[in-house]
TrEMBL record:
Organism: Glaciecola nitratireducens (strain JCM 12485 / KCTC 12276 / FR1064)
Residues in PLD phosphodiesterase domain copies: 169-196, 347-374
Protein name (Swiss-Prot/TrEMBL): Phospholipase D/transphosphatidylase
GO molecular function annotation: cardiolipin synthase activity
Pfam assignment, any one: PLDc_2
Any one of the GO CC terms: membrane
An annotated GO BP: cardiolipin biosynthetic process
Length: 434
């Protein structure tokens, strides 16, 4: 007992929420942040359904970034589809490549990326690779070390290398970004690992990534620019997106904007964007996430939607890659399934996909999970999208996942063994740190 104040203080110093103040950016705000102010003019929100007008207005207040039209966004299911497209874009690069990832395993798949990035550097392309300071430790052999040996510029985001920096060990850069020449970008939840090549993996992981072509690439690139400046103190510049022709722009229908979130000045932007969208829902809400541990505000928003007669469906993995998280989710199921909310457990392989679909017009894609770590501690990047055709593609993906899932029966939750209920609720106390 005599040591408990000391231990408690140390524990909070290590794992309490330490807000990051980006002092370097405040010293040079005109250089680092000006691009968000110079973007293409926002769309006329009256082009969207009336119930979403307030969402556009509130969304700009939450995150003062314009919604821009003229984007084409393509879902890429699993690494079997995503990785070849990403490597092809790297191989075609002429000007610059920026890549950010939480995990970049130096396995046979990771080696393909390392070789492609090194080859781009050799032919004169500017290449910047940013890896999370903790996520890089998932691989025994480090990809960034291999890249450095080949001359590629790399950096680590908040590495825990000293007594002072270790207090930020809980604040991770969870963003996955690849931008090439201002012409194409890739974002989503997919790390770089052989496990995402499902057809050949011994421990397969399902996931969805997204290929983006259009003016919203400038916003994605800007997020990387800020992260790189924070990690290195170096300012990088790249050309803005320029559509090939007006005809091409007309064919690209998705209206989108970046939602940048993290434990800094961007804190709570993903959470408030989701709350705002749930308040605008009229017919349906579909959520797919690997970890579903919503806080009370999000839980209330979901229940309010269900009480309005809106169909709310949630797909989670039957077994995630973190056993304790499974127990916490199971502890929350009785509360979540109130008012007709349906939860489905997706059968193996573990599904790491993250999408939110509301009505036939709105979607939310990117790196954010529905858990405290993602919403409180992590630096995340997402796209808020408005488009019926894109939503139809996501809805079809959701339906295919639901077919491989089992509905959680509310009555069965209350018949769970007593020891499991005690175990689950004890672990739930530590859910912010899982």
């Amino acid at each position: 007992m005599i040591f408990s104040p000391v231990v408690g203080t140390l524990f909070y110093w290590l794992f309490g929420i330490n807000r990051i103040k980006r002092l370097a950016q405040k010293e040079h705000p005109q250089n680092v942040k000006q691009d968000f102010c110079n973007q293409e003019k926002s769309i006329d929100f009256h082009e969207l359904p009336e119930n979403w007008h307030s969402s556009i207005i509130a969304g700009y207040t939450i995150h003062p970034v314009n919604c821009v039209a003229g984007n084409r966004i393509e879902p890429l299911v699993n690494g079997d589809t995503a990785y070849p497209a990403m490597i092809e874009s790297i191989e075609r690069a002429k000007d610059y490549i920026v890549l950010s990832s939480y995990i970049f395993d130096f396995d046979p798949l990771g080696e393909q990326f390392v070789n492609a990035l090194a080859a781009a550097h050799e032919r004169g392309v500017t290449v910047n690779v940013l890896l999370d300071g903790i996520g890089v430790g998932y691989s025994w052999h480090k990809s960034d070390r291999a890249l450095k040996k080949l001359g590629v510029k790399t950096a680590r985001f908040l590495p825990a290398i000293s007594f002072t920096s270790i207090r930020f060990i809980n604040l991770r850069n969870h963003r996955k970004i690849l931008c090439v020449d201002g012409e194409v970008a890739y974002i989503g939840g997919m790390n770089i690992s052989k496990n995402n090549v499902v057809k050949r993996a011994s421990h397969p992981v399902d996931d969805i990534h997204f290929k983006v072509i259009g003016p919203v690439i400038d916003q994605i690139s800007q997020v990387f620019k800020e992260d790189w400046f924070f990690a290195t103190g170096s300012l990088i510049q790249f050309p803005s997106f320029k559509p090939n022709t007006d005809e091409q722009k007309d064919k690209n229908s998705v209206v989108a904007r970046v939602i940048q979130d993290g434990p800094d000045e961007h804190h709570n932007r993903a959470r408030w964007t989701l709350i705002n969208a749930l308040a605008c829902a009229k017919t349906s809400v579909k959520i797919m996430t690997p970890y579903f541990i919503p806080d009370q505000i999000l839980m209330t928003s979901l229940h309010a939607a269900a009480l309005r007669g809106i169909s709310v469906e949630i797909i989670v993995p039957e077994h995630s890659n973190i056993l304790f998280v499974d127990w916490v989710m199971e502890a929350n199921f009785p509360r979540i399934t109130q008012h007709g909310i349906k939860i489905y457990k997706n059968k193996r392989p573990f599904d790491h996909s993250k999408i939110v679909i509301i009505d036939d017009i709105w979607s939310f894609i990117g790196s954010t999970n529905w858990d405290p770590r993602s919403l409180e501690f992590n630096f995340e990047i997402n796209l808020e999208c408005f488009d019926t055709d894109f939503n139809a593609k996501l809805t079809a993906l959701f339906a295919s996942k639901r077919e491989n899932s089992e509905l959680v029966i509310e009555d069965e939750l209350y018949r769970l063994a007593t020891y499991k209920k005690i175990r689950n609720n004890l672990v739930r106390l530590f859910s912010p740190y899982l």
